[in-house]
Every structure is written in C-alpha cells, then in structure tokens.
Design a protein that fits this description.
single chain; about 325 residues; alpha+beta; 2,3-Dihydroxybiphenyl 1,2-Dioxygenase, domain 1; eight-stranded mixed sheet; 5 helices; globular
Length: about 325
C-alpha cells in the first residue's frame, strides 16, 4: 500500500549568534521557543525549536545556532524558501511589522497567492502567505494576536539540483499530489492543514553549501511509530538508503537524501514536546537526553547563554 505524508513536520536550518536567533523568531515573528536542547549529534551546539503554543507538527522551525558557524551558500539541495502561513487579511500587518524592525520585504505572486518574502538575521530566506486552512495560533507577542499570528508552515519552496528527480520523490515516495504549474514552478500538495504546499522550480539549481543562512533538512510527518517503520521499508523499496531509526526524544527520525540533493527526514508526530516539560513552561530549561545528563555541567559551560525577551529587537515594545 502506498504511503502518504500529511506534510512537513519541521524544517531545520543553521544560524550563527544564538541570542539573535531567539530574538528574531520569538520577538519579531512571534513564535514560541518550545524546546531548548542540543544537537544530539554535536552536543556543543544548541538545537532550538520554535513553533506555535505547543509546537505542533507542521509549525516547527528548528536551528543549530553557533557563533562559530560559517556562512552558507544558498542553492540546490536546500529549502529555498521556508513558507509560513498567516490568517487571511494579515499580510498588511506583517509588512508593517517587519519593516518596523528594519527587515527588507519583497512581494511575490504565484499560483494566485500573494507572498511577502524576507530574510532573517542570518540571511535565511522566508516568506509569508495568507490562507484560511488550519487553526489560529494562540501564542501572542507584542501586538500580534490570533488574527495575525503565524499559524505554522504554509509549506516550502525546494531548490533541487535535479528537479525532475525531486518531483518523483515528492509524488512517488512522499505521496504528494501534483497540483499544476505556474510561472516556472510545479506545485504539490499533501492532506495536512499546515506544511502542505510544496513549490518546486522547474529547473536544475547548482548545489549550495551548508552554513548559517541555509537549511539542513526538511522533515515530513509520520503519524506514529508503526507507520514510521513502514516508511523505512517504503523508502528502501524506492532505491534510497535511509538511516536507521533514531530517537530524537520528541519524535523518531530516519533520514535519506533524495536525488536532487535535498536531505529528507521522516519524523513521527508523537511523543511531542511535552514529554519532558509542562505545556506552560516549554522552552524554559535546557533539556538533555538521558545519555547526555552525566555531561550536563560541561555542556552548559560550553553554550552561550540565551533568553527569551519577547519584546523583539526593534521599535515595537
């Protein structure tokens, strides 16, 4: 039986200064820091998760911020634009808010939708789009209300070095539906309310290089551990070489690189971010997996201190 993902689970990117990363995503974009942990494969580096009030799948952007990180080169094999969705009518508010923080904004139009495109402090390419689908986000910062707050991911624009191969992976492996073409993009859609629209430029884009201002991978949703095991076999059946299933504490993961160069992860929806923190205190403490707890003092000493200010980093207070 063919498998179909509900859409994006999370997107992970590189950044430099951890505090500036927190300031931008909590203070400017109004997301919640739902988890402060470390890169399980490199515990000297933070792994920060930002999302809606509980970090539901389809709302989570995550970062490996390190002041020692080199600058990346945007290109093929990456998420070209991470797309956030806001309620209908909210784009004028966001244009004004972003400009008040000194963020340059460009307007784009594709598939009969208007977009605001901009970059974060590291140069990561982001965009906002209005859509009706999906519940509003109840997490409020500054003047942001549920009627204007970022709800989650609208989807992503994928930059592929072999776009026709990525098209096959989206349709034949991940189970997305081809929706049509517009202004040299192909559009694909999944069934979930968030992270469900993928736009793919219909041209091969030279490979980029990882580093601050670029993405590391895009993760797709598996509904539970049982389905996750099926995904492992499904990916193998299509000729890919996935990793073993890894325990990421808040989900289980497997990874494979599709033939256009983009690293795909498949992550389970459960157990979620409340497995080691109460909903009211998400992101407040540095949480470590049990195998790193004996090294907590050393790990904490090596990390730059960060705090959530929630008042932004610009004129809005």
């Amino acid at each position: 039986m063919a498998l179909q993902t509900a859409g994006i689970h999370h997107i992970t990117a590189y950044a430099q200064d951890p505090q500036k990363n927190v300031d931008f995503y909590t203070g400017v974009l109004g997301l919640r820091l739902v988890k402060k942990t470390v890169n399980f494969d490199a515990p000297e580096v933070y792994h920060l998760y930002f999302g809606d009030e509980e970090g539901h799948p389809g709302t989570i952007i995550t970062f490996f911020p390190s002041s020692a990180s080199r600058r990346g080169i945007r290109g093929g094999g990456q998420v070209g634009y991470t797309t956030f969705v806001v309620p209908a009518g909210a784009l004028p508010y966001w244009e004004q808010r972003l400009r008040s923080f000194g963020v340059s904004v460009m307007k784009a139009f594709r598939f009969n939708e208007h977009y605001l495109q901009f970059s974060d402090r590291d140069g990561l390419s982001l965009e906002l789009v209005e859509r009706e689908e999906g519940p509003n986000n109840g997490w409020s910062v500054d003047s942001i209300t549920p009627d204007t707050a970022i709800k989650g991911f609208g989807g992503a624009v994928l930059f592929s070095s072999k776009w026709e191969e990525t098209k096959k992976a989206l349709e034949q492996v991940m189970g997305l539906t081809f929706m049509g073409e517009d202004v040299n993009y192909a559009r694909f859609q999944s069934a979930g309310p968030f992270g469900n629209v993928i736009d793919l430029p219909m041209r091969d884009i030279p490979l980029g290089a990882g580093g601050a201002g670029t993405t590391h991978h895009i993760a797709w949703r598996a509904q539970d551990d049982e389905e996750h095991g099926k995904w492992l076999e499904w990916v193998k059946q299509h000729g890919f070489l996935p990793t073993e299933i890894k325990n990421r504490n808040y989900f289980r993961s497997l990874y494979f690189r599709e033939r256009g160069g983009i690293l795909f992860e498949i992550a389970t929806d459960p157990p979620g971010f409340t497995v080691d923190e109460d909903p009211d205190s998400l992101g407040e403490q540095l949480k470590l997996p049990v195998w790193f707890e004996p090294e907590r003092v050393r790990i904490e000493e090596g990390l730059e201190p960060i705090e959530v200010k929630n008042t932004g980093e610009g004129k809005l207070k």
